Amino acid sequence: MTGGVVDRAGLGTARRIVVKVGSSSISGVNAGQIDPLVEALAATYGRGAQVVLVSSGAIATGLPHLRLDARPTDLATQQAAAAVGQNVLIYRYQQSLRRYGIVAGQVLLTAGDMQNPTHRSNAQRAMERLLELRILPIVNENDTVATHEIRFGDNDRLAALVSQLIGADALVLLSDVDALYTRPPHEPGAVAILDVPFGDDLAGVTFGAAGEAGVGTGGAGTKVAAARFAAEAGTPVLVTSTGNVARALAGEHVGTFFEAAGAAGSGSAAAGAGRSAERPA
Description:
36% of the residues lie in helices and 17% in strands. The chain is built from ten helices and ten strands. It has helices at residues 23-26, 34-46, 58-62, 75-97, 111-115, 117-132, 155-166, 220-232, 245-249, 268-273; strands at 16-21, 50-55, 104-109, 136-141, 170-175, 180-181, 192-196, 237-241, 256-258, 276-278. Helix 7 (155-166) runs parallel beside helix 8 (220-232). The longest helix is centred in the first third of the chain and has 23 residues, at 75-97.
């Protein structure tokens, strides 16, 4: 890693950042969020940082083009929707990036690519070269060829693996919710979790399922699992909403911050001190 991010403020100066956005945030009625997301990425890119976007949404984007109004349950139709949707999605991103003179590079991966040493090395080399050339990689699971047996399961995990692959200074996981909560945020008594010391097992926290939109596969639980994986590898993680992405990348105090292994104050003592939390405004 190159930046040594230890808190939210460090995101404003981090040199290499991975940002992951979910299907429900950039498809369907929320497709308009692509432009403000790209604007935030471009601002970070513009200060000289290297940015990688891990974007879900291929299947969800492809559904209307296949005249489907819900995510299909059979693998073949999911693959067909992904084949169409990935093409449309990358076009939308490039159209938005063109305003800032930024070129995107599409990188499609399967779990097998990360597990096979030769494939992993090739993927790492390609990603490094794209970043050196000031191309903004847009990564997604290769849903057109991935089977149930070799899938990542969700792109939160993929984002954590990409962060490890390229030695990212920080990982930002975006969703429809502004932070992690002690229970689903619509439930009475839900409290926003601000900071998670390294090693905190989040005992007593109840996570809900994937979002109500029905187009994604992740949820709060997958984000926590991905954040822990990245933090154990030395990459701090911020979890917040897509609407907060500009503030997050500027280093403002938003979302839930997972401290990484090796950060100042990390370890059992910090975990024992407990996480910080506040009631939502």
